[in-house]
Design brief:
By secondary structure, the chain is an alpha+beta fold. It has 3 domains: about 130 residues, Elongation Factor Tu (Ef-tu), domain 3; about 60 residues, RNA polymerase II/Efflux pump adaptor protein, barrel-sandwich hybrid domain (OB fold (Dihydrolipoamide Acetyltransferase, E2P)), CATH 2.40.50.100; about 190 residues, Helix Hairpins. It contains 7 helices and 15 strands. Helix 2 packs parallel to helix 4, helix 2 runs antiparallel to helix 5 and helix 4 runs antiparallel to helix 5. The longest helix has about 80 residues. It is rod-shaped, with a radius of gyration of 55 Å.
Amino acid sequence: MPNASGAGELPNADYAATIRFGLWILMLGFGGFLAWAALAPLDEGVPAPGVVASESKRKHIDHLTGGIITQVLVREGSRVKAGEDLLLLDGVQAGAALNAALGQWRISVATAARLDAERKRLKAVVFPADLLAAESEPEAAAAMAAQTDLFRSRQTALEGELGIIRESVRGLELQLRSLDQLKAGRQKQVALFEEQLASYTKLKQQGFVSRNQLLDIERQLAEVQSKQSEDLANIAGINARLAELRMRGAQRENEFRREVETQLTEVQRDVSTLTERLAALRDTHQRLAIKSPVDGVVVDLAFHTIGGIIKPGDRILDIVPEGDGLIIEAQVAPQYIDRIYPGLSADVHFDAYMARAERPVITGTVEVVSADALTDARSGTQYYSMRVSVPPAGLKKLGNLALQPGMTSTVMVKTGERSLLVYLTRPFLRRFSSAMSER
């Protein structure tokens, strides 16, 4: 009997040892798990939905003044080069306005050149180089010819007026020289008669000359002195007329100069106004061909019909730039914004490739976070805009997978580290803290 009972206790002892060993294993495993959960760091992050966008974003193409479409040269999805024509607008009115303004400008510039030559008293009109460059065009040639003819006729008229005055001056100067010579002769006659009178006076006292002879000498002296006074008066009158004529000539020249300067000021003002108008009209004329500002792809083409009317400021189409850097534009929920700031690292998962066995993940950097909350126009939810840059090295991880603007993605911004234990217990601790604070 003892043998039988002893034999039955051995299996029970082995079974208990196995249980204890298993319990020790479980305790060690659970303890190790707790230690790992408490000590092993795990990345903590904030998720944010995002969209792939070009670094310079879409280019919205519109038109400042609008117009009537004559040609649509692209279609949805067309690839275009920078400077390539997209649409052409009707240019009849713009061309007519440009030609009219150009004609007025040429006339004004030619007039200004003629007036400047008159002011400087040049022998010929000196036209500016930009007007001479258009000399082969009939309007420009006609404007220069008309002003050249007017310059010559005005110079001829002015020279005619001044020539008459100069001729009168020369005639009076000849008279003045004759009177000066006559005055010198009169002075000699006066001197001779005075000398003769003195001699006759002595002879009269001595009785050699009669009184009548003495009176005759005095009469002749008085006549010569009277004519001498007339000569002096004539000389004074001629000098006065000379001064008047010279003043009249100077006044005519001054009047002509003032008239020219007044007209030149007005014409120069017109030239300045027309130059600005021409620049605006040339810009309008150049805008008749709507061009692509960058290399890219045409999207959202809003006008397809020839004869369609584009209003000023209407969006015509968008161009998605090619060869441009890509960024991720993400929306951060307001409750997480206190943990987001520029410089944080972020993992970007692309939704288009989530079904693949190897889901590509690239690492970017938070560059910009909006200063205030924005509102989504469609959903009405608030969010903070976040911009994540992707370095070229990160894009190489995609291999042959291509990224296109508009692709959706999920951005996980790394905001720090925490253990699994903290992750598991934090909700209970928050609930407990909330429960303890309630009344």
